[in-house]
Amino acid sequence: MDRQQEFVLRTIEERDIRFIRLWFTDVLGTLKSVAIAPAELEGAFAEGIGFDGSVIEGFARVYEADMLARPDPSTFQILPWRGESPGTARMFCDIRLPDGSPSFVDPRHVLQRALTKASDQGFSFYTAPEIEFFLFEQDSAPGQPPIPVDEAGYFDHVPRGTGHDFRRATITMLESMGLSVEFSHHEGAPGQNEIDLRYADALTTADNIITFRTVVKEV
């Protein structure tokens, strides 16, 4: 067991973490999640958690269904919206086949292969995402187009605006999970907002964007 795995196990005990969510995505980027108890984590690090890959979009045919989700301890973070005690944490997973080899349909592995090829040629790949999203009123009439929370434009300051409060809450939650945010602002269309994450290597950025999408829906 390496030091990062030992750190995760120690933190889980010290912070009273009762549930560990193992995250991965299908080939379309849809987040998948399975929760395990702390007692199962050492086994998950060593062997992975089995699941039926044939029901995951783009993963496997029925007769190739057996797959393993092996958590990456370097991605361990506590989920702030689940409360402190008992707590919930998450880790991203690498998808493996029963013989322990990487799955070639795992989006993380596809990116890792590309990064390895780039590294072999002397390149490092860093990305800085500018993530945009829309905020709408909750009481839009059924069957009618959604109503933006404001009619503001690019860089507009909206007094007592919903967008300000939402971006502040989102950034606070992201930073509590170790994601660095550079800045945020209102974008060009009504209800359109942007939050820019600090640059990181491409794999970390990909994980951060999935985390961002989840946080925005939880705020």
Structure description:
- There is one protein chain.
- The protein has helices at 3-14, 41-47, 107-120, 162-176, 202-218; strands at residues 17-25, 31-36, 49-52, 66-71, 77-78, 87-96, 126-127, 130-134, 181-186, 192-197, 200-201.
- It has 2 domains: 3-121, Roll (Ubiquitin-like (UB roll)); 126-218, Creatine Kinase, Chain A, domain 2 (2-Layer Sandwich).
- The strands form 3 sheets. Strands 1, 2, 3, 4, 5 and 6 form a 6-stranded mixed beta sheet that branches. A 3-stranded antiparallel beta sheet has the order 8-10-9. It has a two-stranded antiparallel sheet with strand order 7-11.
- The longest helix has 17 residues, at 202-218.
- The mean pLDDT is 93.
- It is an alpha+beta fold and 219 residues long.
- The chain starts with a helix and ends with a helix.
- Strand 1 (17-25) and strand 2 (31-36) form a beta hairpin.
What's the arrangement of secondary structure elements?
Blueprint: H1 3-14, E1 17-25, E2 31-36, H2 41-47, E3 49-52, E4 66-71, E5 77-78, E6 87-96, H3 107-120, E7 126-127, E8 130-134, H4 162-176, E9 181-186, E10 192-197, E11 200-201, H5 202-218
Parallel strand pairs: 1-6
Antiparallel strand pairs: 1-2, 3-4, 4-6, 5-6, 7-11, 8-10, 9-10
Structural class: alpha+beta
Order of helices and strands: HEEHEEEEHEEHEEEH
Shape: globular
CATH homology group of the largest domain: Glutamine synthetase, N-terminal domain
Strand content: 25-35%
CATH class of the largest domain: Alpha Beta
